[in-house]
Write a structure and sequence with these properties.
With about 290 residues, the protein is an alpha+beta fold. It has two domains: about 120 residues, Mago nashi protein (2-Layer Sandwich); about 120 residues, Sandwich (Immunoglobulin-like), CATH 2.60.40. The protein is built from four helices and 16 strands. A seven-stranded mixed sheet has the order 4-3-2-1-6-7-5. A hairpin with a 2-residue loop joins strand 10 and strand 11. Helix 2 packs antiparallel against helix 3. The termini are far apart.
């Protein structure tokens, strides 16, 4: 006997209307239409897995704030982290590479029941797309994008790379580094700054103008935008940065280099008189 779940009549019409709107915009949007960064919205819904989670992460280009709405599997919701314009542009570059804006409505299906199910939604004035699947069925570029948004849920952002050997015009509000810890592909920095009434934008930028020595050395710096926070408390927090892009850049510069090679990073923060030295170990490349 098959049991069917009744869906309220109004909700059915609302869902159909939403999907129809996506279809219309997807059909009329040009594949070459540029993304409107300040008006773009990226959303990820995650459900299932062994824990049976159900949460939604939303990134809004108008204020570049990551927001979490959680039904199951999270302790809290609300505003999670503020990301910089450079971080937002990097994320939208990944959206474009994955081709998400032009995919319209697409369901890639699901594999094993223990995997998280993803629904990625992207919208700007020229595009509206909604794709679903899981890590085993989504194309690799879309799966990587979903993983990056999941990381933002926990306040983890990607390292940014620069061809410069010192800071450019990035925000340099006062910030000090209290601790540094490397675990796998992540660098966790304990930082302190003046504020307490707003989310602050903090990025890790590493120069790929490698200093040829053994081991190789790299300059790095933190950028900090306090977003006009006028409070004078001294919050301390842990900021975590994903280093996979840095390791990929190293392998590209030194092809054939074995896993286990080291990079000595000299890290400066706006307000710290002395740099912090961090030793990174290059892992073996992940399987495609």
């Amino acid at each position: 006997m098959t049991t069917r779940r009744a869906v309220p009549h109004g909700r059915t019409h609302a869902a159909v209307a939403a999907l129809a709107a996506i279809a219309v915009i997807a059909c009329t949007a040009s594949a070459t239409s540029p993304i409107v960064e300040s008006e773009a919205t990226l959303e990820l819904q995650v459900t299932g897995g062994i824990a049976g989670v159900d949460y939604r992460v939303v990134l809004d280009g108008r204020d570049r704030t990551v927001r979490l709405s959680c039904a199951i599997g999270c302790e809290t919701g609300g505003d999670v982290v503020a990301i910089s314009d450079a971080q937002w542009q990097s994320l939208l570059d990944e959206v474009a590479v994955a081709g998400l804006p032009t995919l319209g409505i697409r369901d890639y299906g699901t594999g094993c029941c223990d995997l998280f199910a993803y629904v990625l939604r992207f919208e700007d004035p020229s595009h509206l797309a909604r794709v679903s699947g899981d890590a085993s069925t989504l194309p690799p570029t879309l799966a990587r994008l979903a993983e990056r948004v999941v990381a933002l849920r926990d306040g983890r952002v990607d390292v940014l790379l620069s061809s410069l050997s010192s800071p450019g015009a990035e925000p340099q509000d006062h910030l000090t580094i209290d601790s540094a810890r490397v675990t796998g592909n992540e660098l966790a920095l304990g930082v302190t700054y003046s504020g307490g009434c707003a989310l602050h934008e903090i990025d890790l930028v590493v120069s790929t103008a490698w200093m040829e020595s053994h081991p190789v050395q790299a300059a790095a710096w933190l950028t900090h935008d306090d977003r006009g926070d006028e409070c004078d408390a001294l919050p301390h927090e842990i900021r975590t940065f994903e280093l996979s892009r840095l390791f990929a850049a190293y392998r590209s510069s030194y092809p054939g280099s074995p896993a286990g090679e080291r990079i000595i990073v000299t890290l400066r923060a706006p307000g710290d008189p002395e740099p912090t030295t961090v030793e990174l170990v290059v892992p073996a490349p992940s399987s495609p």
